[in-house]
């Protein structure tokens, strides 16, 4: 077998690479909140300032859990509304102005958060305000990247956003580890940790004034000459170059079609179609199920409290827990890079989702058994071996999450819907994603306390099992299927969706009126 690499996929210009990196840094607020900020709340300096020491809550453990959950989760609550704001502002202000506005909102919220100085109410307000900007950036940054990337490298370019997000997540744990070793437990300690992401985001904000608006947005605003010039600059070609002309013609045709579709149907009409058209309805609820399962298998809740989870697994030393949390972030980064830049197109969406869920299920089952039966045994040798296995199971979980539901709900949501209902359907799916992420992050401390730790892992395992069975039956493989042919995968009985295949490609017909041209 001979392996060849198409190096043309990686050919780029320095200016184009600069544009991609600057915009992709819009993932820093979300990534650092899951890593750097979530770990900073375990620092002694932060606990002292915001009354999070267990000794102060001896008779009210639930009160402590609620206080910690509010501080951690309110950023995500703001992101729920920020994502919806971005979807409304993207077409009104443009991608680039919306990105800048989101960066300003996040930075001002973060600044107030850093200097809230023990004022609990002010901290919660700042967390929500900063979350608005972070949520906006999770929508506008991937959208900008997808619109400036050539079709053949779109997945790779948008993947840069996830790589930066996960890279800063892992870095945040190591920053916490560094300050815990070399700084005293004063306000300066946690302020340094929480203020760190302001530096790269503010630098990128200044650099953003060297960036252009996307060619697709310019064309949608009838600024065709400007759009053609921007496209040529991004590609490092003359505006009259045949390759630029061909790509611009495709962009223009897509923009015209999208405008025609948008003009013919309102948001409410588009939503009604997702529920009244049986084919659309199956696609819609499958994507909603993916978002739901992704979060309630533990998802980001475990990432936000990973330092605490490692302590439950037997790493009682805070430094060990922070180092392990950093390695956890690195594992997620490496596996997600492998997944985003090749594995998903090699194995397929369905295989990756089911494999990831199976790994998550195995990890949760072991943690539930360990916490319920083995963690308090008097046999020290047994406890050490079981603890090591518990730590290993957390990394197994990280691999499963990264291979499966970390990215697939986003990808599925962008490829299974026709243009006519894509914006509304994707907006609803992302708002559901953020709402469930807020719910999970908010209730995780209470679940761990109220269900004696092991019950929380058993709950997550049950969701994994239900998701594994449900998706195995209802989730078709979309690898290699043109967007125009997606409707054919959702014809026929729902319980045979697992073996649905498009018989031939490309298929003729209108995706809005799917034909029964599928093989079961």
Features:
520 residues; Growth Hormone, Chain: A; two-stranded antiparallel sheet; globular; mainly alpha; disordered N terminus; disordered C terminus; 2 domains
- Just name the CATH architecture of the largest domain: Up-down Bundle
Derived from helix and strand composition plus strand pairing, the structural class reads mainly alpha
Distance between the termini: 32 Å
Reported by name, the CATH topology of the largest domain is Growth Hormone, Chain: A
List the domain count as a whole number: 2
Strand tally: 2
Count of individual helical segments: 22
Q: Please describe the biggest sheet, giving its number of strands, its sense, and whether it closes into a barrel.
A: 2 strands, antiparallel
The coarse overall form would be: globular
Uncertain runs:
1-10, 504-520
Radius of gyration: 24 Å
- Beta percentage is under 5%
CATH class of the largest domain: Mainly Alpha
Notes on the protein architecture:
The protein has 520 residues and is mainly α. The chain folds into two domains: 14-211, Growth Hormone, Chain: A (Up-down Bundle), CATH 1.20.1250; 280-480, Up-down Bundle (Growth Hormone, Chain: A), CATH 1.20.1250.20. The protein has 22 helices and two strands. The protein has helices at 14-24, 28-40, 44-49, 61-93, 95-114, 120-148, 154-182, 187-195, 198-207, 215-220, 224-235, 242-264, 267-276, 278-296, 299-304, 306-312, 318-347, 349-374, 380-403, 408-415, 419-450, 454-474; strands spanning 501-502, 518-519. The protein has a two-stranded antiparallel ribbon. Helix 16 (306-312) packs across helix 17 (318-347) and helix 18 runs antiparallel to helix 22 (454-474). The protein is globular, with a radius of gyration of 24 Å.
């Amino acid at each position: 077998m001979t392996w060849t690499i198409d190096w043309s996929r990686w050919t780029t210009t320095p200016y184009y690479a600069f544009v991609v990196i600057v915009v992709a840094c819009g993932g820093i607020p979300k990534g650092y909140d899951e890593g750097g900020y979530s770990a900073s709340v375990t620092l002694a300096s932060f606990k002292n300032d915001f009354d999070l020491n267990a000794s102060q809550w001896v008779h009210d453990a639930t009160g402590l859990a609620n206080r910690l959950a509010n501080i951690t989760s309110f950023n995500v609550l703001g992101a729920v509304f920020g994502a919806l704001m971005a979807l409304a502002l993207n077409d009104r202000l443009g991608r680039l102005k919306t990105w800048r506005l989101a960066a300003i909102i996040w930075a001002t919220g973060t600044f107030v958060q850093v200097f809230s100085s023990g004022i609990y109410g002010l901290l919660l307000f700042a967390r929500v305000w900063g979350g608005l900007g972070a949520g906006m950036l999770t929508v506008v940054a991937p959208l900008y990247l997808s619109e400036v990337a050539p079709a053949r490298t779109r997945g790779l370019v948008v993947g840069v956003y996830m790589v930066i997000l996960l890279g800063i997540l892992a870095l945040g744990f190591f920053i916490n580890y560094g300050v815990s070793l070399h700084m005293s437990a004063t306000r300066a300690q946690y302020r340094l940790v929480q203020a760190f992401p302001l530096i790269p985001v503010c630098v990128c904000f200044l650099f953003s004034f060297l960036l252009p608006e996307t060619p697709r947005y310019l064309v949608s605003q009838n600024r065709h000459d400007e759009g053609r010039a921007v496209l040529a600059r991004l590609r490092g070609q003359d505006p009259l170059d045949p390759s630029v002309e061909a790509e611009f013609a495709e962009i223009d045709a897509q923009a015209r079609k999208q405008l025609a579709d948008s003009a013919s149907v309102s948001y409410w009409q588009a939503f009604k179609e997702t529920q009244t058209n049986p084919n659309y309805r199956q696609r819609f609820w499958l994507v909603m199920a993916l978002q739901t399962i992704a979060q309630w298998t533990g998802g980001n809740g475990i990432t936000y409290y990973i330092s605490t989870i490692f302590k439950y697994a037997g790493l009682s030393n805070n430094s060990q827990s922070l180092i392990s949390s950093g390695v956890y972030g690195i594992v997620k980064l490496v596996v997600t890079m492998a997944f985003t830049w090749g594995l998903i197109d090699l194995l397929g969406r369905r295989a990756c989702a089911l494999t990831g869920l199976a790994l998550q299920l195995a990890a949760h089952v072991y943690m539930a058994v360990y916490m319920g039966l083995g963690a308090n045994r008097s046999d020290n040798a047994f406890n050490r071996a079981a603890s090591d296995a518990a730590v290993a199971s957390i990394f197994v979980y990280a691999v499963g999450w990264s291979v499966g539901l970390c990215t697939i709900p986003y990808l599925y949501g962008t490829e299974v819907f026709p243009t006519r209902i894509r914006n509304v359907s994707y907006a609803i799916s992302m708002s559901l994603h953020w709402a469930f992420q807020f719910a999970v992050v908010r209730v995780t401390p209470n679940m761990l306390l109220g269900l004696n730790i092991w019950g929380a892992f058993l709950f997550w395992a049950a969701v994994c099992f239900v998701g594994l069975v449900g998706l195995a039956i209802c989730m078709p493989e979309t690898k290699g299927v043109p967007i125009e042919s997606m409707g054919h995968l959702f014809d026929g009985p729902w319980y045979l969706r697992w073996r649905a295949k498009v018989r031939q490609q490309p298929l003729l017909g209108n995706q809005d009126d799917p034909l029964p041209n599928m093989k079961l």
